[in-house]
Amino acid sequence: MIDSKKVIIVLPAYNASETLQKTYNEIPFDIVDEVVLVDDNSTDETLRVAKELGIKHIIKHDQNKGYGANQKSCYKKALSLHGDIVVMLHPDYQYTPKLIHSMAYLIANDVYPVVMGSRILGKGALRGGMPMYKYIANRFLTLFQNIVIGQKLSEYHTGFRAFSAEVLNSLNLEHNSDDFIFDNQMLCQIFNKGYEIAEITCPTTYSEESSSINFQRSMTYGLGVLKVSVQYFLHKKKIKSFQIFK
Questions:
Q1: How many domains does the chain have?
Q2: Domain interval for residue 190
Q3: Per-residue exposure over 63-93, b if at least 16 CB sit within 10 Å of its own CB, e if not
């Protein structure tokens, strides 16, 4: 705990057996109270590794529901365990768990209610092996989003995020997509509620075991990002209302 605030790490897992132990071993258990792993019907040994590591809270989807659906299960479980600070960490070791301290303390000390680890601040993305086409797409989409949404984030696409329970309880997550666009819908919901988001520089490690989507799904994701941004703009201007912002 941090000042009597319960810290929970959620791991949305899919085929993470090769990297799960390395990720888990770097979690700072001096402040972390619980770990929740949701397995989205992996085809590898993710569940076996999770059990061997002694992860207490393991949820398995009976079918592959998608990245967004995985996060919905993660947050629902974390809130049921009365977590005050919930940190979403990918178990593929693309992001270092060593930043959990910094992210959690910003929330515990009431500095910010949401903190994201940014691969773009500094040189973490390219130095860590992010493919150039993904880096360029990230920069273009982020520029578009900042203009349309009216914010100044360095990136909207990181998978390393920490939230206060107050923020999570205020969001209409069940109406969000079950796919990768969930992340961006969630950020727009956070801004719509008037919460501020902090960013800290995050070194990144890309490897063969790191989770990634192919070019076709990346294109689908990119179009989804544009759509969500425009929806947020229309909603804020009171031109059209959308369910995810209710």
A1: 1
A2: 7-245
A3: eebbbbbbbbbbbbbbeeeebbbbbbbbbbb
Tell me, yes or no, whether 27 lies in a domain.
yes
- Whether residue 105 is contained in a domain is answered as yes
Dump the DSSP string for 149-179. II---S-S--S-EEEEHHHHHHS-GGGS-SS
Q: Residues 6 or more apart from 192 whose CB is under 8 A from it?
A: 232, 235, 236, 245
Tokens of 69: 């659906």
> In whole angstroms, how far apart are CA 127 and each of 80, 123, 131?
38, 6, 10
What is the model's pTM? 0.94
Asked whether the beta carbons of 37 and 57 are under 8 A apart, the reply is yes
**Residue the block writes with tokens 């990144």:** 204
CATH code of the domain containing 187: 3.90.550.10
Q: 2 lies in a domain? A: no
Query: How far apart are alpha carbons 96 and 103 in whole angstroms?
Result: 12
Extract the runs of DSSP E, i.e. beta strands, from 191-238: 197-201
Are 135 and 143 in contact by the 8 Å Cβ rule? The answer is no
The C-alpha atoms of residue 210 and residue 87 are separated, in whole angstroms, by 19
Per-residue pLDDT of the chain (246 residues; tens, 9 = 90+): 999 999 999 999 999 999 999 999 999 999 999 999 999 999 999 999 999 999 999 999 999 999 999 999 999 999 999 999 999 999 999 999 999 999 999 999 999 999 999 999 987 788 888 888 888 999 999 999 999 999 999 999 999 999 999 999 999 999 999 999 999 999 999 999 999 999 999 998 887 655 556 777 888 999 999 999 999 999 999 999 999 998
Q: Is residue 1 part of a domain?
A: no
